[in-house]
Structure prediction request, 86 residues.
Amino acid sequence: MPNIKSAKKRVLVSRQENAANRAAKTALKTQLKKFDAAAAAGEGELEAIYREAVAGVDKAAAAGVIHKNAAARKKSQLTKKLAAAK
Prediction:
């Protein structure tokens, strides 16, 4: 445990940021799984779920939770799955 006040604060702040990033990444994974399940089931509202998933990927990339290239790759994969499901 750090002794300097600013180092103590950094520990607290980094824990909060880590928890927020973990929650955001978990929410993103949930959206992606929801899309995959809908694509496999052949649901009619697949386009709406696709838009939500892409928006979630964009938000995660903007927040720095995932890298922008990883976001582009995930969006490409989603688009391919959407085209295959149609």
Observations:
- The mean pLDDT is 95.
- Residues 2 and 8 are 6 Å apart (CA to CA).
